[in-house]
Specification:
- By secondary structure, the protein is mainly α.
- The chain is built from 12 helices and 2 strands; from the N terminus they run H-H-H-H-H-H-H-H-H-H-H-H-E-E.
- Strand 1 and strand 2 form a beta hairpin.
């Protein structure tokens, strides 16, 4: 319960936050960019389309990089220290505080991923139909728009959307945990550079290294691309899921261990995390 209170405390900060509003405005722009081609075709043809463009968003490597940049802005100051945090840590304990902050990162990651799907629904509300099939519009323009033909051939709409949400949420969670750990260990610029490098790694691999297989296996941001997973040189879906779960678990373990050895010092309204040896 203590960790849940810490998690809820972080979400209360969303109210009136200019940064949170900015992040979701940009997510809305990215959702519009992903959906406009399909929606325009649907409106011009007068044929309604189901809301299954969502898995293709994370298969567009430029869009995925932009979304990860927005997630960077959301998580850049993890572990979100402010004047309330020392008292929250004292009341809940360092372990519960660390786990609560990690829970916030996980739930926020799911919210970001789900919001992209919901924004697509709202943008196409006038031409929307619900179906468990891909629909004639998506089948008709697959390969000529953001929607890849391979996703339509390999997955059902519900399976593709579920996998896309799971993989993208785990990737965003990885970026948040990485920010958390880096900001515990080093100045904020180190976390920004490290997470930023992971955000652009897939795009760099595409344009400069011609999708080098060894780098694709080290680039978590690449692993939500259902259109490419399992193809030559790319990791498999099982590899992506296993690696993301493993990386997130390792980062979370390191964060808990590090927080166990941290002390809090408040000086003139500034909060510092100091390393201390565990007491005998």
């Amino acid at each position: 319960m203590a960790s849940l209170r810490c998690c809820a405390m972080q979400f209360r900060k969303w109210r009136g936050s200019v940064r949170i509003i900015t992040v979701f405005v940009f997510l809305a722009i990215f959702a519009y960019d992903a959906n406009w081609n399909v929606l325009t075709f649907s409106r011009n043809a007068g044929v309604p389309t189901p809301p299954w463009v969502y898995p293709a968003v994370f298969s567009d490597r430029y869009l995925m990089m932009c979304i990860c940049m927005a997630v960077m802005v959301l998580f850049c100051d993890a572990p979100f220290l402010d004047r309330h945090q020392p008292y929250l840590i004292l009341r809940s304990g360092r372990k519960s505080w660390a786990l609560g902050t990690a829970e916030y990162l996980l739930v926020s990651s799911i919210v970001v991923s789900a919001s992209i799907f919901l924004m697509g629904l709202l943008l196409g509300i006038d031409t929307l139909t619900f179906s468990t099939d891909w629909g004639g519009v998506l089948k008709g323009i697959a390969g000529r728009s953001i929607m890849p033909t391979r996703i339509l051939n390999l997955y059902s709409p519900l399976a593709a959307c579920g996998l896309a949400m799971l993989l993208s949420s785990l990737i965003f969670f990885f970026l948040g945990l990485l920010f958390f750990l880096c900001n515990l260990l080093a100045p904020p610029v180190v976390g920004t550079l490290t997470v930023g490098a992971f955000c652009v790694l897939d795009f760099f691999c595409l344009f400069f290294l011609h999708d080098a297989s060894w780098l694709l296996h080290l680039s978590p941001v690449s692993w939500a691309n259902l259109n490419q997973l399992g193809t030559t040189g790319w990791p498999t879906l099982s590899y992506a899921l296993g690696a993301l779960l493993g990386l997130d678990s390792i980062l979370l373990g390191l964060i808990v261990l590090r927080c166990h050895r941290m002390d809090i010092q408040v000086t003139h309204s500034e909060i510092c995390l100091l390393y201390t040896s565990p007491s005998p």
